[in-house]
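Minutes, methods subgroup
Present: GH (chair), OT, SY

1. OT presented the first of two proteins processed in the latest run. Sequence and structure tokens recorded below as shown on screen.
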Amino acid sequence: MKKRKLGNTNIEITPIIMGTWQAGKARWAGIEDKETIKAIREAVELGITTIDTAEVYGQGHSEKIVAQALKDIRHRAVYATKVFANHLRYDDVINACENSLQNLATDYIDLYQIHWPSGSWNTEIAPIAETMKALNELKKQGKIRAIGVSNFSVPQLKEAQLYGEIVSIQPPYSLFWRGVEKEIQPYCLEQNISILSYSSLAQGILTGKFGDNPTFAEGDHRKDHRLFQPPHWERVKNALSLLEPIAIKYHCTIGQIAIAWLIRQPKTNAIVGARNVEQVRENAQAGEIELTPEDIIKIDSIGKEVTKHLDDNLFMWNFD
């Protein structure tokens, strides 16, 4: 898989990134550690060498699973993890990074990201200058190689840039969730900041696997996703039916079409999770699909029939 530069750094990332939120198990159902470990290992073997995780995914469990899968071939992978919104004071950032290093069984993290802006999820407000001071110190010590942010608005990103170099931003972005295109993507293009999109398959919606009336196991957070709720769900089903002939044309799945489209958007790389080896193989194959310019436009217009009815709120869920 052809690699790309991460922002202005010499770090090379893959356009398809292995997401491991599900590896933490929290807010997911039916996840098996053994299967996840095999999936992460297979991702690297197939060329998906960039792995995204976070301290909050299962309170470190996801990071530990990544370590179990890759500790003997750590040198072949790029690790991206995140510090949560409740750990943005100077000492808390330092301690959180040490914990992540231990969980990941590594002595450096390639990309360390602020998971949510300070104050999110009812957390204490910490000045971004204080957070960035800690991140810059970790970078100086060689414990992290680059700094990124996640779920930031453009004004929040600009403020962080006052105190250090930000090489990436991680927003929700998919064919069916495109608020990033309004302000974030143009700014990243101007600043050469890499976009690492999460929920690149709209949390599985773009695989087409949910049928007419989706049901979820107890504890599965996806039941609260706004796209599963009326009136959006009817538009989603119609768009999926329009994407199906395009998938047939390319001898692939709708999900693979959605990934192939996404990684051709400006500055965009797609984080895609997987429960098992089979899903990883499907994701990797999406990187080989060569969409025609005409089909890229057609796919784009189908997606907009869903997204034009959404508001500007990038938050995807209606949690209680």
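2. SY then presented the second protein from the same run.
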Amino acid sequence: MREKIVEALKSLERKLGIHILYACEYKCRKQTGPPSDYTHHVRFIFTRPLDKQLCIVAPVDQYYQVNDEKVEIYGLDLRKALIAVWISDSSIFEWLGSEEVYLNKTYFSKALKGAIPVYFSPKVCIQRYYCIAQKIHRTSFGGSLAPLGSIYAIMYNLLLCSWIHEYTSVPPYDISQLRTLIKNPTVQQALTQILKDLETHSETELVVCAQPITAWVEQEMSFFRKQRGKPQKIKDAKALDGLYQNILSAMGTNPLYLLYLN
């Protein structure tokens, strides 16, 4: 499937006249976004040659397509992606934290990862993950039964909140790292069972939510409800401006300039 996805991305480059700077598998999509039936969620950041950027009519700044093999592909224009980083939109942090990378211009991804600590806002990101957990809690976590996927998703988002609160840094998106924050062995055991069940059962299957998980979720929800506050002032965008201008200059109108990004 990887080869098919890479070919689909390269086909998009040829068809749309764009250059994909970074493309990855968005593995935490199911835990941080609305329900989805797609098997693969591909995300990419793209740009165009400079002469295509400097047009009177603004070019399309995002693309979305799906195919019959249950692959969802979504891409953002470079400027739009950098604005997302500027306002500490955690989606871009999640993309860059992916372990499954399909296409990558090394200079770009290294430079962008280097800028992330400057613009990462713990309060903004905690607010986002808490709101996701709150929605799950309100719609599908009440009662003795809950969808298997919802139990995992609410724990996943609360663990992201906990990591950010504990370390004030971009969290890892691997559950094996996040779960180290859980000190209660009975909660750890219950989470292990949830992960095993997800390997063989549908995410929509209703299961009994173990009491240790229910208690842990209520405790974490209560804690982060009280931690909500006004985010800090958005930082100056000069570092991102420099990256944006550098990439556009490298793109130019001469294909040989693309060598600069590798």
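Chair's summary of item 2: The domain at 2-120+234-261 is CATH 3.30.460.10 (Beta Polymerase; domain 2).
Next meeting: continue with the remaining queue.
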